[in-house]
Write a structure and sequence with these properties.
By secondary structure, the protein is mostly beta strands. The protein has a single domain, classed as Sandwich (Immunoglobulin-like), CATH 2.60.40. It is built from two helices and ten strands. The strands form two sheets. Strands 2, 5, 6, 7, 9 and 10 form a six-stranded antiparallel beta sheet that branches. The longest helix is centred in the first third of the chain and has 17 residues, at 3-19.
């Protein structure tokens, strides 16, 4: 193979790499920043699931017991937020304030957002009324 063939091959490989979704780098875990309770903590983990999907798992401890929480993907740049897996309506903590949330998200969808946030619903229902951000983590920090 001559130098021109090598150069064309490298250029084609670079073009293909740029065209592929970059979200596959999002895999790993990080502790989320807590906003409401000093002793509470949450960890978010993103792992590969089926082809083209990521699994988001959040494990939280020492939250308000027997309470409702929802999980959101947030873009501060676009001033948008979208509930993760709205059919499941988030998660409810047990009597000790511990909870786990798991949902599948398309890779491309995950790449559109900057943060994952957990919201507490003091009224006990997954509505916007009274909702408060309990935890937050940058998606880029995961992995």
């Amino acid at each position: 193979m001559n130098a021109l063939g090598i150069a064309l091959g490298l250029a084609l490989a670079a073009a293909v790499a740029l065209a592929l979704p970059q979200v596959s780098a999002y895999a790993g875990s990080t502790e989320m920043e807590s906003f409401l309770w000093e002793d509470s903590r949450a960890e978010v983990e993103i792992t590969d699931a089926a082809e083209g999907e990521k699994e988001i798992t959040i494990r939280a401890d020492d939250l308000m017991p027997d309470s409702m929480y929802t999980v959101w993907l947030v873009s501060e740049e676009r001033s948008e937020a979208e509930m993760v897996s709205p059919k499941e309506h988030g998660f409810r903590t047990d009597s000790e304030g511990n909870g786990v949330f798991t949902a599948l998200v398309p890779e491309e969808e995950l790449g559109r957002w900057e943060r994952i946030e957990v919201a507490w619903h003091p009224e006990g229902a997954p509505t916007m009324e009274g909702m408060q951000t309990a935890f937050s983590a940058g998606i880029e920090a995961i992995g």
